[in-house]
Amino acid sequence: MTEEYxxxxxxxxxxxxxxxxxxxxxPEKLNAFVEQMWLNLSTIFRRLSPDPSVRSIILxxxxxxxxxxxxxxxAASQGTLGRPSADPARAANSLRRHIHEFQQCVTDVEKxxxxxxxxxxxxxxxxxxxxSLACDIRLSTTSTRFSxxxxxxxxxxxxxxxxxxxxxxxxxxxxKEICLTARIFGGEEAxxxxxxxxxxxxxxxxxxxxxxxxxxxxxxxxxxxxGTKELLNYSRDHSVADxxxxxxxxxxxxxxxxxxxxxxxxxxxxxxPTFSKL
Length: 278
Prior knowledge:
This protein has eleven helices and ten strands. By secondary structure, the chain is α/β, with parallel strands linked by helices.
């Protein structure tokens, strides 16, 4: 299966049954993103999403120095951002399209049917927050260094952090402080506001914990985990009434599955259930 997921700047492996591991692989540049990377990231997650052999996904960065240092600013300045135009309207329209495309690539992680666990380690700046906030579970290490770095390069973050972070932590004062100052903060502070759900001694320990969580998720009904992710994300962006209504419509179809019967029967028989591929 690994041979089917060969993409530049990424390693994709399958460390446990139904678990995929996506590793950002540009460690010599602190896993900083160039355009081909976010295009490949999108392709990988759009392929993993319907893959019946995948039920949960881990996302990490190669090496010990960084999950990702963010956008490769030098490469960006030589690309779309650095192209001169005599017409401000046309330049603005080109940038708008470019930003939307970049946003969509990160949103493809959020839209992936399978739960995604991000392990943030080392330098986790800028795009690291955009990307991890599109994931479902975030883990950190004691030495992780976070920063919403964009104001330090003269712009407002535009790939997802400013939209997702306030909903992820529920503390608008803290969100505005770290976004307006670009100050660096660590794993313990990230956990204290709910940005991450666990902090571990080093990358290896955090990845092992992510694999444990991913394996537990992969052992559940894929119908149930897909539905749970879908309903949580929908309800985050809608009223309680809308969430309840969508849940009723969703489950009107999705409870009509053999998985419910198998799960109930296994509980009565005190055995581990086995679920068919989705």
